Amino acid sequence: MDINAVNALSYEDFLEIFGNVVEKCPIIPAAVWIHRPFTSLADIEAHISDFIDSLPESGKEGILRCHPDLAGRELQSGALTRDSQEEQRAAGFTDLQPSEVSRMRSLNSEYKERFGFPFVICARLNTKRDIMRELLQCLGNDPAAERARAIGEVKKICALRMRNLQLSNSPNKL
Ligand SMILES: NC(=O)N[C@H]1NC(=O)NC1=O
């Protein structure tokens, strides 16, 4: 489906397709809808990025809080969004040893206690080893720098989800 087809979508269909490009934040594609007609998918992505950047710090933290923990309880109970489930599987989190699960749980809790939002990283671009190393390292970051790093990861996740929409053959996807 090309950009003309995207521009021809109803608002409801647009949201059905783009609603989770930022995890559990359909308000973001809903907000960029006003910028139609889009010139390309990269144009949509740029509007999403600008919208995120325009938010106050509390809004950016809100976006981060919509992300599930990596290797958390939702992964175990099968309660993740399909996107997140596939991303966490790609990084190797569906295949952890019990000791790795407890290590991730304890690092995630320590991180959340320190920053007030979950540790976010683009799982598709990292292995579980990279992620554990990065999580540990980020615990030492300054809160503002850490929020900025995490928002950068949200944008990477969004970019890959948008690319996935383009390639998917499923009937309600691009
Ligand atoms: N916490 C966190 O990073 N979650 C995520 N990362 C990713 O690539 N998909 C997610 O749901």
Highlighted features:
disordered C terminus; peroxisome; 64% helix; OHCU_decarboxylase-1; 174 residues; EC 4.1.1.97; 10 helices; OHCU_decarboxylase; single chain; mainly alpha; binds 1-[(4S)-2,5-dioxoimidazolidin-4-yl]urea
Give your account of this protein's structure:
The chain is mainly alpha-helical and 174 residues long. The protein contains 10 helices and no strands. The chain has helices at residues 3-8, 11-18, 27-32, 41-54, 57-65, 73-77, 82-91, 98-115, 128-138, 143-167. The structure holds 1-[(4S)-2,5-dioxoimidazolidin-4-yl]urea. Residues 23, 67-70, 84, 87, 118-124, 157 line the site of 1-[(4S)-2,5-dioxoimidazolidin-4-yl]urea.
N-to-C series of helices and strands = HHHHHHHHHH
Unique ligands: 1-[(4S)-2,5-dioxoimidazolidin-4-yl]urea
Q: How would you classify the helix and strand content by structural class?
A: mainly alpha
Uncertain parts: 169-174
Strand content range:
under 5%
Number of DSSP E strands: 0
Major pleated sheet = none
The pLDDT mean sits at: 94
Number of DSSP helices?
10
GO biological process, one term: purine nucleobase metabolic process
Organism: Tachysurus vachellii (Darkbarbel catfish)
Main location: other
Keywords: Decarboxylase, Lyase, Peroxisome, Purine metabolism
